[in-house]
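Retro notes, item 3 of 5
We never archived the inputs for the nicotinamide-adenine-dinucleotide complex last cycle. Fixing that now. Sequence and ligand:
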Amino acid sequence: MTADYDNRPPTDMESLLSRQRAAFLRDGIPTIYQRKERLQRLRAAVLAYRNQLEDAVSADFGHRSRHETAIMELVGVIQSIDYLSRHLRRFMRTERRHVALTYRSGRAYVEYQPKGIIGIMAPWNYPVSLVLIPLATALAAGNRAMLKPSELTPRTSDVLKDLLTQTFPADEVAVVRGGPDMGAAFSALAFDHLLFTGSTQVGRKVMKAASDNLVPVTLELGGKSPVVVGRGQVNDRAIGSIVFGKLANAGQTCVAPDYALVHEDDVDAFVKQFDVAVRAAYPEGPTSVDYSSIVSSGHYDRLKGLLGDARQKGGRVLEVGVHPEHATRRIRTMAPTLVVGARDDLAVMQEEIFGPILPVRSYRTMDEVIDFINARPRPLALYYFGSRDAECNKLLARTTSGNVGINNTMMHVAQDDLPFGGVGPSGMGAYHGIEGFRTMSHAKGVFVQGQWNLPSLLRAPFGRLVDLALAATLRGKRASSPKARAPGVHQSA
Ligand code: NAD
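Structure as it came back at the time:
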């Protein structure tokens, strides 16, 4: 493997951007057929590189199961490409819009035009799909793209670079590799749109850098996503789903349930059942073939630090699942761990965990749960297990999060026709499906003058005809509407 990040000086990236922009202006807006052909090229390349991608991701992580990479990344990429291709005609259709009476016989419509060159910055945790789904979206919307994958998954970036270089000319799609310095230079380029996926701290810097060129940004960030287990709802299905959400990719997932809020009567059952479900999913403990390693020693030490802090402050730290004798045989594995009764002052309750640790807190009432969530930054995802009853409705109505999963974790991400994005510190804007297409398109409003538009008859010098037209226009509906005349008018009289 090579760690030869391109580390292009900013001027090289600028010239790459200029080449893409020149090609975009030269070739004009791609037709639906050209867009579909690009998507199909991408699809075929992903399938051809499947083994290389799975191997590279596993090598970058220390270990990640092929199945996990295929299910959590490649299926999502292929499904997105297929969905975008299938619905592209509808997405691209011009939309007729309302025309006021005054302008009738004219026509108003919106055309979705490619923005131009999209910058895409990705994190390491799903290093394939978080590059390729935004890319597919950019191509579907008729754009060209420059990509900056994470430096923490260099082998995957090598394969992606090879895959994309073989599939697209550099003036259509280009990959630039490097670390934070490169990221900073990349985010300062004058793209037509920048989609950043990564941490909230870096997201702030990226938005600042983009603002110098007034580049619009979509920020797909992180945070602490709660899972709320309704009273009496600890059962196989609920816990199986929470275990899946927390331990897929060893918890290194932006939408993983970060901490659990469990009714005080159910905490013991939750802990017991969680242990049973972990044993069933990972029969050889942390060395199971389907259990991932932690991506880097820096992240591994950070997670160990969180547990050290919890122990030191008297937290109840419980390693769950099977504890094999040779648990250390594989690099950077961390046992699934619960921190029961996690208090606010524990670091696990203060920062995004991004690992196989689940703090569990008890609650008595749904109001308490709602207040707890609302006292913290708005999460990327919220999960609820229970019936769709008044309690559930109250939780949904009185909290704000990116997306919500009811009786499942993480499945909202796989829904092509749902927008995906956070709110506030967990993100800004959204992509996937039509929202992604529109994020990467310019909605251009067009008004076509009709032959008999009223304003075209009313040009200076203004005379009696204008007074009549103004009287008719301004009288409007409000004056004659009984509703408008009712309380307000009486009060002011
Ligand atoms: P990160 O913010 O450290 O890095 C993301 C990208 O930014 C990388 O390509 C990196 O090289 C680049 N970068 C680093 N420093 C930079 C700087 N100063 N200026 C510009 N670019 C810079 O994030 P990460 O550690 O790779 O990923 C984990 C984070 O990403 C978590 O917070 C997670 O929740 C979040 N995430 C969010 C989503 C989502 O869709 N909302 C998906 C995956 C991960």
